[in-house]
Design a protein that fits this description.
globular; 14 helices; alpha/beta; 7 strands; 446 residues; two-stranded antiparallel ribbon; disordered C terminus
């Protein structure tokens, strides 16, 4: 009997042959493809969840529940939809991924291992919650490690970080993209939990993202209705979808976020294609799914216990005595991601080469931005000492005297003043606000 991955490949082969002949395929072939894909998905889901449980159990700590509940959304996003190159985490036009509910970091670490990030070995995965000083798997994602875009942990912070990344992407695209040369086209994906959406910093960022119509931003809500204290309705009973819609977001819902990977993929693809506004995908999940404490706050931040972990494996048809088991079929399931990443990188490199021939000056400046360099020598833009006041001066005014010349000449600087531009002296001649063209339509005089 072929493995799940082999069966899926075989089914794909048959369906592909039928489609090339201009036929939609008979029901038997379609059923075989569906069954093979479902079998492959079930196998990977079980492997993912049992691995998370094992990793928490070895040191009797960590956060298994959310990572287990989010397995299907992770497979849907990282295997089928997100654009990135595991073999080159610094590929510039990659989609950015932010895990705002950073305590669920095993979700990201396990996916990074399965898709082939070179540094995220199984040995490294096993360093989670250990005292090893060489670990790449701290209890919350940290930007110093390859593949991690921002450090997250304080709930809601990652949501605001994701909005910032989406703003940066939009600004870069508006500055450097030309007809036929979309050199910046990445999306920003942010996973949030129930508590992230209760934090003020997240709500302010959500409002701004809707106002700016950041269609390059997709937020995936792990809706398991559990916080540390218990059910979310202890403190919050609002209609989250209505709130997001009121803030200018497109709202999509997936009712079975535990197993229905095709439905999640469909929602993610719709979000990726959205051209007018940011997208919020409400995916209903069960925290700690499959365990004795499924759907309970106890699944949030405690190891499940050896008996429960063994039972999880038995229910999945796995060897209860084998730990950290990852089959070749599971690795093979994610192998296509690396090939896709290579193709995307090559296509982008070729685009940049052609862009450089057509727009050499813009390409030179864009290259410096990509490398993290200033576009001009900023040291020559700071006013000389003789032009600065010698009498006592408020620090905000002094800051304006130095920063305004920098902001006026350096296109890689954006300034935020929290509605206090005059007070903090950050206004300069030729200043442009970051706005969507339809956010503030011009008034037409009668």
């Amino acid at each position: 009997m072929p493995s799940p991955a082999a069966a899926l490949d075989l089914a794909k082969h048959h369906v592909g042959g039928v489609e090339q002949n201009g036929d939609d395929g008979d029901s038997t072939t379609k059923s075989a493809l569906h069954d093979a894909r479902q079998s492959s998905h079930n196998h990977v889901l079980s492997t993912f969840r049992c691995l998370v449980a094992d990793l928490c159990e070895q040191y009797k700590g960590g956060h298994p529940g959310s990572a287990m509940g989010m397995a299907a959304m992770g497979i849907a996003l990282w295997r089928y939809v997100m654009g990135y190159s595991p073999e080159n985490p610094k590929y510039f036009n990659r989609d950015r991924f932010v895990l705002s509910n950073g305590h669920a970091c095993l979700f990201q670490y396990v996916l990074m291992h399965l898709v082939g990030y070179k540094h995220m070995t199984l040995d490294q995965l096993r360093s989670y919650h250990s005292e090893r000083t060489d670990s790449f798997c701290p209890g919350h994602p940290e930007i110093e490690h390859e593949g991690i875009e921002v450090t997250t942990g304080p709930l809601g912070q990652g949501m605001a970080n994701a909005v910032g990344l989406a703003v940066a992407t939009k600004h870069l695209a508006a500055t450097y993209n030309k007809p036929g040369f979309s050199v910046v086209s990445n999306k920003v994906w942010c996973v949030v939990g129930d508590a992230c959406l209760q934090e003020g910093v997240a709500l302010e960022a959500i409002s701004l993202a809707g106002h700016w119509k950041l269609n390059d931003l997709i937020v995936i809500y792990d809706n398991n209705q559990i916080t540390c204290d218990g059910s979310v309705d202890l403190a919050n009973t609002e209609d989250v979808n209505a709130k997001m819609g009121a803030c200018g977001w497109r709202v999509l819902t997936v009712e079975d976020g535990n197993e229905d990977i095709p439905a999640i993929v469909d929602a993610l693809k719709k979000a990726r294609a959205e051209s007018r506004q940011p997208t919020f995908i409400n995916i209903q999940t069960v925290i700690g799914i499959g365990s004795k404490v499924a759907g309970d706050a106890k699944a949030h931040g405690l190891a499940l216990g050896p008996e429960d972990v063994a039972n999880l494996k038995r229910e999945a048809g796995m060897n209860a005595e084998e730990h950290f088991a990852i089959s070749n079929e599971t690795y093979d399931f994610f192998a296509e991601v690396r090939e896709r990443g290579r193709r995307d990188e090559q296509a982008w490199d070729e685009l940049i080469e052609a862009y450089g021939k057509e727009y050499p000056e813009m390409a030179d400046e864009f290259g410096r931005r990509v490398r993290g360099e200033m576009v001009k020598d900023w040291t020559k833009l700071i006013p000389p000492k003789k032009l600065l006041p010698t009498s006592p001066t408020p620090s905000r005014k002094s800051a304006g005297l130095v920063c305004n010349p920098l902001a006026s000449e350096l296109r890689n600087i954006m300034v935020g003043t929290a509605d206090l531009s005059p007070s903090v002296n950050m206004i300069w001649e030729g200043k442009h606000d970051f706005q969507h063209v339809r956010a503030r339509p011009r008034l037409i005089e009668p």
